[in-house]
Amino acid sequence: MSVFASLHEAQSFLEQHPDIEMFELFILDNNGVPRGKLLHRDELLAVYESGRPLPSTILGLTINGDDVENSGLVWEVGDIDCRAYPISGSLQRMPWRLIPTAAVQVSMHPTEGLPATVADPRHLLARVIDALKANGYYPVMAAELEFYLLDQKPDSNGRPQPARDVDGGRPRSTQVYGLRELEQIEPFLADLYSACKLQGIPARTAISEYAPGQVEITLEHRTDALQAMDEAVRYKRLVKGVAHKHGMTACFMAKPFDDLAGTGMHMHVSLADAEGNNLFASEAADGTPLLRQAVGGMLSTLLDSLLMFCPNANSYRRFQTNSYAPLAATWGVDNRTVSLRVPGGPANSRHIEHRICGADANPYLAAAAILAGIHRGIREQRDPGAPVEGNGYAQAKELLPTDWLTTLRALEGSSWAREAFGGEFLSVYLAVKQAEYRQFMGEVGEQDWRWYLHQA
Predict the structure, then answer these.
(1) Which CATH architecture fits 129-412?
(2) What is the pTM of this model?
(3) Pairing relationship of beta strands 265-272 and 352-354 according to DSSP bridges
(4) Integer Cα distance of 257 and 259 in angstroms
(5) What does the alpha-carbon distance between residue 99 and residue 66 come to, in Å, rounded to a whole number?
(6) Which of 155, 228, 269, 330 has the fewest CB atoms within 10 Å, i.e. is most exposed?
(7) Which overall architecture, per CATH, does domain 7-113 show?
(8) Could you report the per-residue pLDDT of 67-89, keeping only the tens digit for each?
């Protein structure tokens, strides 16, 4: 686990930013939802000196913020206070806020944070990374996140709609890689890149994606995988904040529209040695034997960990043929119709692009599942088989599940996951997702009425 931030970091920040009045203290729960408190300036130093108490239930909530009684973090422990401490480098100004405000991300202390520590998704990723490092493998990672820019007001039918561009119109057609589409959101992009620079987030290429109002911005790879996912977490918050300032909603929902492309989070991963040399580097397009073992491990654990890549009921609506969303446990070289893609490029850039996650996935949990799968593949020298050539959709022999319950049961019954992630973490995570499943299935809504009100 990385060392928590020093008191000097906070003192320096206060000296350099005398105008900051408020501080958002947040921790990321297992659904990827930031939760926390709003502090006054004179409360900040105490957080760095002795941590900040947060209720144990904060890491056992549903996506709607409801307690999950059988998580073990409610009545059994009396909703005890658990101490969280700031993550180094996370104290950053939030330039889009009206009141001068900064944010600081915290994580549960290994001992003072108990019992909530076992449910902290950042701790899980740190443990998986440490296990790889113990065997001489240093993961290098980056995230690509897609999102929709939506109007804050729904259309006349109460449904979400694309945000207006600088000309006052709404994008109506798919103009993938369209440059004019990026020009039409230039004020938003200008503020977004400026905020990323201010916060030290390595935002790079922006492209117009496969639907009106859909955008993707890549983040630069990091030799510290934990840092890479920290930045992905803060980037999502930043995108939402800047979009709100511009009168828009940034939507990371996996499938917000039935007739338009879903939103994904592509994860790029390679392994380095202690000196930083890429262990996947090869003149061969399909990489080294180690790369292929990593692919084999990820394919063999895909079903068991699919809930961490696609955590919500809506996540599975994204899986549709010829949609550039994966449908099967497949891999290939420079092929976007498969789940695991080895991109082309120079030998020293060889890596794997994991294309399964929805943009609604928690980056910490997704990365932990990816790296744990890779570790299994290396330990067991897993053979991924021949890479798919051509249309991976047409060649898929066994499709991924397209329903939430199947993946819930797969994770629940996985002995590999229990060993890789720990029984204590899984008991909390599964309790939360099972509670959400029951709530979702118990809610009667507009689709039920359309289908059954008059026909049943």
Answers:
(1) 2-Layer Sandwich (3.30)
(2) 0.94
(3) antiparallel
(4) 6
(5) 29
(6) 155
(7) Roll (3.10)
(8) 999 999 999 998 899 999 999 99
